[in-house]
Design goal:
alpha+beta, 497 residues, 33% strand
């Protein structure tokens, strides 16, 4: 049993656990949890102790269980808390030998040396958040990684960044909802310390966020036996609430590193330095890219200035291989607020590219230009799907008896193929449908008390999701609220949350 429940209400909570919490149905599951990541090296970059949980707590649990090699590095730390840090990471499955404490006085060199030494396949890092230390470290990481990508053509890691405050620490304290809720979109003027609405600008498009599912023991309705909660409480002097960061998903923003511009001669390097947030925008009205050999291009992505409230008209000239006089010319509108312009150009081979601003406002600028050889890169994190109710990842979803129908959706992580969804209610098939895109399905529950749902990619059944919807009566709902109240009172008493 979790140490925080050794006294007081332990016996009562154990009873409830036997009745309800351990009933994670055998029909639940997702291919995301069954992949082996043996031989995959993961690097978590945190500023302070505890940030590793805010950034990727569930994901660390998932990947360590999948046998990935996980390193956690800190930019700042308190020597008095080293034992707490080691204990917290042990709970998450990270070996103490894989914990790295960087020298804060020469952080830039330390960070670059660390990244090049480990050459991790996947890197998770704090993003440009409200906390100034997070902003500084996020900007430093982008700068260092940009240098590495331009200097080392044989290293292209997967990058996932997360707002430790806006999508974790300062989220609503909603853990004790009837069903586990998703990470909430930050709201300007509502979310604590979210003083500038970054969501919807440059690469921070909420609908494009990456959402990873959470492991089984982190889905239960009590904090008892929740390893993520246990890791949080290992830090005895933490001042942030476990009730805010336990959700049905974990949210990141992905940054691709396979940009062909890193191997080009560029008229202004600001447009291919991996940095997009701070004062690092190229205001030139004309930018050129030249390659010594033609590069394959299938997709072009251009980000403008996140402070630009006007769209801009641009012209792109692409000089193609084997015929210097042969050009592909594209005229397009660069969206406002730095949102990405995405152009799929088929399969062409480019020797030279030129971007010219035809019509633009005073705040015009280009933050980053990306030329990709493939629409999607080869990733270490495998594609997966996850069924949703009201945009919420669900695993076992309890509903009142009077509910007659539910709207089902689907989240796709780099899966474009048609998906078959099947629903079985009391051993009878009540739904079999194929979803081609992002459409939702209406599930009529009929008289069934338990619905078992399965979603699978038709062309690749190894990518699948399973979940359960259960009808629960008033007594069961009241019982759950009572046990959650007791659970919360126990935590309040011990941790004064």
């Amino acid at each position: 049993m979790n140490k925080i429940f050794e006294l007081g209400l332990a016996s009562e909570l154990e009873l409830y656990d036997e009745i309800t919490c351990n009933e994670e149905t055998a029909t639940g599951g997702n291919s995301f949890f069954e992949r082996s990541y043996f031989g995959t090296r993961i690097l978590i970059l945190a500023v302070r102790f505890g940030d590793e949980i805010l950034i990727a707590g569930n994901t660390i649990l998932n990947l360590s269980a999948a046998r990935a090699e996980i390193f956690v590095a800190y930019a700042d730390y308190d020597k008095k808390m080293l034992n707490e840090n080691i204990e917290a990471l042990k709970i998450l499955g990270v070996d103490s030998k894989k914990i790295i404490y960087m020298n804060r006085d020469r952080l830039s060199k330390e960070l670059k040396r660390l990244i090049l030494k480990l050459r991790a396949n996947v890197i998770f890092c704090v993003d440009y958040d409200s906390d100034l230390k997070y902003q500084d470290f996020s900007a430093l990481f982008d700068k260092v990684l940009g240098e590495i990508l331009n200097e080392h053509s044989n290293y292209r890691p997967e990058i996932y960044k997360r707002f430790a405050c806006a999508t974790a620490l300062n989220c609503p304290a909603d853990f004790y909802a009837p069903n586990l809720l998703p990470v909430e979109k930050p709201k300007y003027g509502v979310t604590n310390r979210y003083d500038f609405d970054l969501i919807g600008r440059v690469n921070y498009i909420w609908n494009n966020r990456v959402r990873f599912p959470v492991p089984e023991h982190c889905r239960k309705p009590l904090l008892k036996d929740n390893p993520l909660a246990e890791a949080i409480f290992a830090y005895k002097k933490n001042h942030w609430s476990v009730l805010r960061i336990l959700n049905s998903d974990e949210v990141f923003f992905e940054r691709r590193t396979d940009n062909q511009a890193y191997c080009a001669k560029v008229s202004n390097v600001k447009v291919c330095d991996f940095k997009m947030v701070r004062d690092d925008v190229c205001a030139d009205k004309q930018i050129t890219f030249e390659w010594t050999e033609a590069v394959q291009v299938r997709r072009i992505v251009i980000y403008g200035n996140l402070f630009d409230e006007e769209s801009a008209q641009i012209k792109i000239r692409l000089a193609l291989e084997n015929d210097i006089n042969k050009e592909k010319i594209i005229e397009a509108e660069l969206p406002k607020f730095g949102r990405p312009l995405i152009l799929d150009v088929g399969k062409i081979f480019v020797l030279r590219a030129e971007i010219e601003a035809i019509k633009c406002g005073e705040d015009f600028g280009i933050a980053e230009v990306e030329f990709f050889a493939q629409i999607e890169p080869i990733r270490k994190i495998s594609p997966f799907i996850k069924m949703t109710i009201g945009d919420n990842f669900f695993y076992r979803y309890d509903i009142p008896c009077e509910v007659e129908k539910i709207s089902l959706g689907l989240y796709r992580f780099h899966v474009d193929e048609p998906i078959k969804i099947t629903a079985m209610g009391d051993d009878e098939n009540i739904l079999t449908e194929t979803i081609q895109g992002d459409e939702e399905l209406i599930l009529n529950l009929g008289a069934a008390n338990e619905i078992i749902l399965t979603a699978e990619v038709i062309s690749n059944p190894s990518i699948y999701d399973k979940a359960t919807i259960r009808r629960v009566g008033d007594l069961a709902q009241i019982q759950l609220k009572i046990w959650q109240w007791l659970d919360k009172m126990r935590i309040h008493k011990i941790r004064n949350i």
